[in-house]
What does this fold into?
Amino acid sequence: MIRCSRLSETLLEQVGKQGPREAIIEIDLNEDPADNRMLAEYLVETYTHGMRQVMETIASASRWVTTSLLAINGGAAIAILNHPMATNGKLLSTSLFAAGVLSALASAQSGIRAGNRLMGPMGDALGYWITVKHDGHRVADLEGHEVRLAALVKKAARVPAFLGYLSVALFTAGLISAALSMAGSL
It folds into this structure.
């Protein structure tokens, strides 16, 4: 458990001096190396568990989504090839389904790359707190990695998500194309 009594006392002291809306807290990060070590021990455990859980969740979801997108687009393409309809409609529908398969594969590949790119910054954050755990010394300039890491995670998820949605859109367009072709409108 992390002791926060000094922080609470400092906060109350600042609020008393400045008023509740103007409280300014100045804390020496290295005032008590033992407290830093306890905080770092907690954060190392938290980061390690969090990294493992995030990577397992991403891998599981990625496999499920990729398999589903490949199955629906691939199955639809095979079904259309075996269905009697105009050649132009069959070609367009099958092309859209094939593009959906490629988009699903690209989504999976970009997800893997994004996960790999995140491992470096996640490892840096973990490494920093492991160092603090051992020496008790914190560096304020290095503690912004949590904010940068959150932004990187959000950015990394964009391309795989876009490509997944594109695969679904291509599947839908392929269905519409096939339906119009079967109805004789295409």
